[in-house]
Input
Amino acid sequence: MSTYTAPIRDMLFVMTELAGLDTVAALPGFEEVPDLAEAVLEEAGKLAGEVLAPLNSDTGHTGAQWTADGVIAAEGFKDAYWQFVEGGWNGLSCPAEFEGQGLPELLGTATHEMWQAANMSFALCPMLTMGAIEAIHHHASDELKAAYLPKMVSGEWTGTMNLTEPQAGSDLSAVRSKAVPEGDHYLVSGQKIFITWGDHDMTENTIHLVLARLPDAPEGVKGISLFVCPKFLLDADGAPAQRNTVQCVSIEHKLGIHGSPTCVLAFEDAVGYLVGEPNKGLGYMFTMMNEARLKVGLQGLAISDRAYQLALSYAKERVQGRPANAKAGDRTAIIGHADIRRMLLTMKSQTEAMRAIAYTTASYMDIARHSEDAATAAAAQARVDLMIPIVKAWSTEVGQEVTSLGVQVHGGMGYVEETGAAQFLRDARITTIYEGTTAIQANDFVGRKVAHDGGAALGVLLNEMKATLEELAAAPGDDLAAIRASLTEGVRALEELGQWVVANFKPNMVDVLGEAVNAVMLAGYVCGGWQLARAALVANAKLAAGEDPAFYEAKVLTARFYAEQLLPKASSLLTTVKTGARTMMALTEEQF
Amino acid sequence: MSTYTAPIRDMLFVMTELAGLDTVAALPGFEEVPDLAEAVLEEAGKLAGEVLAPLNSDTGHTGAQWTADGVIAAEGFKDAYWQFVEGGWNGLSCPAEFEGQGLPELLGTATHEMWQAANMSFALCPMLTMGAIEAIHHHASDELKAAYLPKMVSGEWTGTMNLTEPQAGSDLSAVRSKAVPEGDHYLVSGQKIFITWGDHDMTENTIHLVLARLPDAPEGVKGISLFVCPKFLLDADGAPAQRNTVQCVSIEHKLGIHGSPTCVLAFEDAVGYLVGEPNKGLGYMFTMMNEARLKVGLQGLAISDRAYQLALSYAKERVQGRPANAKAGDRTAIIGHADIRRMLLTMKSQTEAMRAIAYTTASYMDIARHSEDAATAAAAQARVDLMIPIVKAWSTEVGQEVTSLGVQVHGGMGYVEETGAAQFLRDARITTIYEGTTAIQANDFVGRKVAHDGGAALGVLLNEMKATLEELAAAPGDDLAAIRASLTEGVRALEELGQWVVANFKPNMVDVLGEAVNAVMLAGYVCGGWQLARAALVANAKLAAGEDPAFYEAKVLTARFYAEQLLPKASSLLTTVKTGARTMMALTEEQF
Output
């Protein structure tokens, strides 16, 4: 069974040196955050490593099970969940007015990385609850908020998001579930699929957020409303009482995340309460999308780190072969072989890049929400909007590579389930699909985030990258020079990409959409390289000041590895993008 | 449950137009092959599609099961196996003197693609038998050959390869199993792991080929001998009689290939017969390596084609969203979306490239074995030796991408096991590991295949590629011009790679080994692009002659897609390779 040790030193490095913890702490209400941060991470790390991680293995633990009376949570999850709730972790970054701890998203993001790394199946439950909390918090009436939020923020009740139907996946315009008014509420009917943690026995109530259509609603996306349908209706005292007519009729047999029940829910005249105004449900969903997508991007990061930890530990233990050029003498642990190091550094450097991208984005979320200067807040929001599809698409796609390398480092043992490496690959595989597939993120990136503002937000980012290039030019040594050379190419590629997208989005939309995934991956590689270059600059200054050479040298070398071994992909992706989608569209269906 | 339709038209196209079926047919004994080929493929396609493919699904079929009395083969496999044996498929490309059909490797390769695509777990059984046949055929005494080969060639008995031990995986120098002489035989003892089809109930005997050390053997690779240890010893009439003391003590719980029992075998003074001379066992294993690695490369191809067929069928059926730019009107099957086409063409074009690389290599195997001209045979063998690590490494690594895209095309349904897409990803994951990991292939490529002859064999290949570039220059049209532009860059990258490997292998071996995987992947992308360019040239000529425009236009467009969207990876891999492994080796173990 694999263990998990939260990388607290690295998390604090990223928060402090790259993601502007000081700036976040200067926002109103966050003054104490720098003093709290390390202690919070230490405590979260204990829960993650000691309680959640040991329950993660598919081997030796029973996953979620369907019964006619409802879903039974995976072995050990219920106890762990209540430790999680009692520790106050569920509402860490929720507002204090609803019993949350009111801490910044930056700190919440680091704890979420831990939950996801320790046990992705488990962590999906509070993640979905958070989405439901946001929907109610931002859009529901004060009455609904008062009735549901405190228990959801504490974690005593969990939440779900009911969007998908068999004919309506990426395309929610096709939602068919119906809601018929009856007195002060509605009767909701329809079948929802792929409902994560849609039913379970860990808590006494589960609050479903459900997209459905009113009888007179217009067709398409403009006729979808949002409802709260609790599993148990509340009595006059606000306690769960009568069972609502929503049933889990089956759970999916999935490739991974076996501890997370993925439910088919049947609503049959279930009592539901309208959230906000009619026909605005899809818009309400979009308001919480940034956070949900950031969290799935974090899953790509988290499971990559977990896979790296396991592979590294195996590479240090497993003895096989001799070092290159040595035909006799002692055999070596496989970490002595260059190719194993290539794989480990590909895992490590990309994981660190993902962390830096995610945490900096979380900081901008805090600034966007809490800055008292409107222009600062607006600029931060623009950065968040630009980065979210990159964080989600790039981190989850690279997570496939990293978890697969984790298997490869183990050789034949990686293919044996008991080792645990294969589970990370299986678990990670969902992350490029749910909460908007990679193509959905990519379309969002090229369309709403780059073309829509004529490349303005991207231009601001590029200027910051160019400032880093200037800092690199002024810094001494081979390593930073090598990083600068590669990053210069990368920034050039990203700039040219932006110009190409802006120029082609309207006249050649199919070309841009056909290349959108390549475009967002290019952006991810460059953003990752930029963040690691920033880390190398910080490390370089620390080294000059004589601080912790082992830690900071590793930061410089990791950044150089990424710059030389991975960042060159950006230029070839640009070559690819610029050819457009003509060949893709030229084949008839029969010619495939 | 997914179906499988053997791509016979494409197979014949590759055999005839790219892999030189005529040249093979001109070899002694193969005169009738061109007349037979289509009929053989049709019959094989029926067995693969109608018998083997329906048994492939993990969902709804019981996999291999261990019992104290031995392994019970997966549901339905025994009946299917006997149809396979009775059809004469097992010995298709085995010599006629041992009851084989004596057909060329080129044709055998196409049938193997079908078995692997239809049911990889099943196909591993005859694949391993073939390895054991080769070992006995080339190295054992006439007496052992007479006793074992006819039943193994017919398939009445199966064979296994017992190499790996817990401490000896990629590094076979660490093998510890012992063989003590006793009369005309030896008593073999030791534990072997990861023995594919190491035990089962489909046939009345299983013939184990086992690596072990004689009591006085030197240490390391020069002290390993090869033994035949049948599950049942033969009586005076050559029939299986007394049970030998080899037991399957467990089978692995694996990520995929659940129909293929992966056994731990315990040999306790098991009767074994020495193959060839003492201490030469590892060398004997190497003589059959090219074929085994070609066949695992074929698995990468086969499972990619299977994943493509399933994804294509889903993409044509699944309706979701509207075409780009259309905000109203009919929804479209997802094959109408540019990104789905990008994914399908990434799958299709790479699958076709893998097929062309594998089949041309198989043709060279036939020439190397059967040409009456020694220089021709030697040149063909040099090409085989160069190509084998590329076929194995590149096809299996790309197979990971293709099967993962197969999941992605399905969206959420891809994560549900019943769909079948996830199984292909799980099954494919072993192919980069067994029969020599990708790093082992890569080291073989840069060391024995490129540096060893100073780049001579690679130079011959590059000259053929340059001749294709000249043909492309003389051909009309945008498509071939675009292919030429990209392939020119690719060939330049491969040439520079070769020079770098030759120049650096001795002075900077760690740099070369650290970049070896990137090097072999670069070679794979360029070889694939070259073969598709050759296909485009043939197709262009056929189109000019007015033949089957739908088929041949698709060939040109597929080649152009690959040239524009995938081949640019070669140049960025070259940039990567040339930086060497310095950053990888610079970190201490503690800095990881």
The first strand of chain A starts at residue 65 and ends at 67. Chain A touches chain B through 96 residues (CB under 8 Å). Chain A has a mean pLDDT of 96. Residues 147 and 238 of chain A are 6 Å apart (CA to CA).
